[in-house]
Amino acid sequence: MNKFQTSLTTFLAVAFYFVTVTSVLSQERPNIIFILTDDQSYGLMGCDGNTIVQTPNIDKLAEEGVLFTNAHITSAICTPSRISILLSQFERKHGVNFNSGTSVSDEAWEQSYPVVMRKAGYYTGWIGKNHAPVGEGGYTSELMEKSFDYWYAGHGHIRFYPKDVHDIFNDAIASTQPEIINEGVNDFIDNNERRLKSAIRFLKERPEDKPFMLSVNFNLPHGAGTGSMRLRDTDDTIYKTLYRDLDIPLPDNYIAKVDIKNPKLPADLLRTEDRQTGYNYSNTPQGFRERYIRQLQAMTGIDRLVGNLRKKLKDLKLDKNTIIIFTSDHGLFMGEQGLGGKALCYEKTTHVPMIIMDPKVKRKLKGIKSDALVQSIDVAATMVSMAGIKKPVSFQGVDISGFVKGDKGAIRDYLFTENLWSTQFGNPRCEAVQNKEWKYIRYYKNNTFSASKKIETAKQLGIPINKILYAVHDPDIATYRSFIESSLEGEQPVYEELYNLKNDSQELHNLIKYDQYKLILKMLKVAWEVKIKEARGTGKPKVYRYTNDSHPKGGH
């Protein structure tokens, strides 16, 4: 062998070594799939106590992982909650909501979990719904699309028939949301699947020598999805007949609108006459039952996708190295206690399912139920930790992956939740702090203008109602900023609630006026003061101006 041949042989051996090592290292890093549903309260799956719904695949996911029975979001409305998940920050820190007049800045977005994981070598994808305005111009900036290796999603609601509202889904074979999302999942994971031509991809195929991180985002069982179900001929039988032969019971604490004698909250605090009309189905038992059946159908459709996904992973021999995380952005009232909608701090809106399944965990640690106080901001911190990536200092969430490995210690003593979406639709600003037994809620004066009066004026002058209700203008930025700071600066609550969650999980009995609970209330107020400061953090929110004045066509 001559010198050249020896050198070539050595070079090839070294090259082969590095390729092999790189491949091994990439496979040592787990793939991660994060599934996020929309408006799914705790109790809509078999594994979290629902005896009607059929969710065998999600139930199996819980049996093979950890089901967190005390998981909560940070803000019970879509946009701020989803940004809290993306950035691992409370809304009071990130500063973006429907009424904020802002979008996430490039600087803040650089510290989101998708960008952090992509920079660390993950092949990333986003499928389904996006309801987080990111970049200069929000939904029109295209910053999110460019931040992923694979994008097959629509901004805003994608409804039950996504092709009706978003062109990107037009080349899917299916017509219903779970099935269209399933096609995107298959396209992302399996290089041999049918290619979706409208999907935005920066590489022709998923590199098999890199770990992947896939975010799957549903617009179900949200009303934008379930409310737009039309029993079309092309619908699967799940969405036509399933559950319709059952006598669906009303919740124990359901109150029809005509039967409300003592409103849950004072009328000048929660103005129910200004509530968005999309929640009017909750006014009657018939309306509740029809919407609930659709929610159950949607959950079974989502469950089928989970089953298909796990089979696909197994067929591709990816199942032993793929972590799956499942949760929701918040819950929803459907007539319980006479309430409809979200944007409150009650359990029905803040308590959500959360499952983490790591296939590498020992058998004896599978199927654990944990009542640890965990929150949606913990998801990003957990994913980067499980991927072996250093947690960004901007993250406010904590790594909860230890529970998957059998840890039983406390993550936090108290949870903090908030609602800063106080608009013409009548919702009050509120904040809550809770431990496993007690919850304390504070409400602030509701000075917002009436939606009913805006609608009346719009009709008189021929102004499009959506334009007058949903437009956000520059002065609204200042109003929202004051919401962030006011309670920290001394604004006092006008109404308070105290609940014993162990004895009164439905929060029916307000104990705030009883002297025997004064010490407990004092303890919770001290905790509130600590937690709200932690939630606020330091510095100003890293946001852009994003109003109808700055971006008239921004799709706010």
Automatic annotation (TrEMBL):
Superkingdom of the source species: Bacteria
InterPro entries: Alkaline_phosphatase_core_sf, GAG_Ulvan_Degrading_Sulfatases, Sulfatase_N
SUPFAM superfamilies: Alkaline phosphatase-like
Domain Sulfatase N-terminal: 30-389
Matching Pfam families: Sulfatase
PANTHER family (UniProt xref): SULFATASE (PTHR43751), SULFATASE ATSG-RELATED (PTHR43751:SF1)
Name by which UniProt lists this protein: Acetylglucosamine-6-sulfatase
Species of provenance: Flavivirga aquatica
Lineage of source species: Bacteria, Pseudomonadati, Bacteroidota, Flavobacteriia, Flavobacteriales
